[in-house]
Amino acid sequence: MSYDVLLEEFEVLESIYPSELTKISDTIIQLDVEPEDSEDGAEQLRITLEVQYPPEYPDVLPELSLHAIEGEGEMEYSEMNDLLNDLRAVGEENLGIAMTFTLVSHLREQLSVLVKTRSEKRQKEETEKERLAIEAEEARTRGTPVTPESFMAWKIKFDQELAAAKKVREDEKLRGSTPKEREETRRIVGRLSGRQLFEKNKNLEEDTLLEEGTVSVDISQYERTRREEDEEEDEGITFSDSD
């Protein structure tokens, strides 16, 4: 490598990047690189490119490395690795000529692409988050569709809760009554209603529904006695000659 050629390249780089270039030694430089297009409100992202020139430069590729600048946005390892591989591919295409300016220009372009990709990714994530939130709200307000199975499950739970609440009320009422009143209440509560008896046995005989001590009545006997009385009255009627 001719040091004159390298010095000439350094002079060109210093004129283009007066504040970004730092000369570490006669064969090592560092350049702070930022995206080519920096829009207002865009993510601030800058990295340092270090170039070490071997004696065979520019016929061989210089040693390249990237370093994140503190406070200028985080870079993931995979992102750094992709950028380096891309730079080395560009360097291979420019062997035999001074390539540092080309490498820096390409790196700035790739940083612009990275910033844009990150921005689009964030927008997609925010859009997806909003979509999920809207769907969750719609599902909450729409409620769960009722099926025969879900209705029966709800009814069983509802009946159980209703029975439990009724028992609590009855227990509270019993606590405030006398022993005799409590006994009477338990007797009444334990007695089956007419509807319950009917549902229990739809073919109940009439005497099942009669309370103890009630006398049954034979309607046919009543009708026969009534006819006999009517006949006796008819026989006792007499008519006068004047009639």
TrEMBL record:
Residue stretches of biased makeup (Acidic residues): 229-243
Domain RWD: 8-114
SUPFAM superfamilies with a match to the protein in the record: UBC-like
Gene3D superfamilies recorded: Ubiquitin Conjugating Enzyme (3.10.110.10)
UniProt xrefs under InterPro entries: GIR2-like, RWD_dom, UBQ-conjugating_enzyme/RWD, ZC3H15/TMA46_C
SMART domains cross-referenced by the UniProt entry: RWD (SM00591)
Coiled coil location: none
Ranges of Basic and acidic residues composition bias in the record: 168-187
Region entry Disordered, spans: 168-189, 202-243
PANTHER family: RWD DOMAIN-CONTAINING PROTEIN
Protein name stated in the entry: RWD domain-containing protein
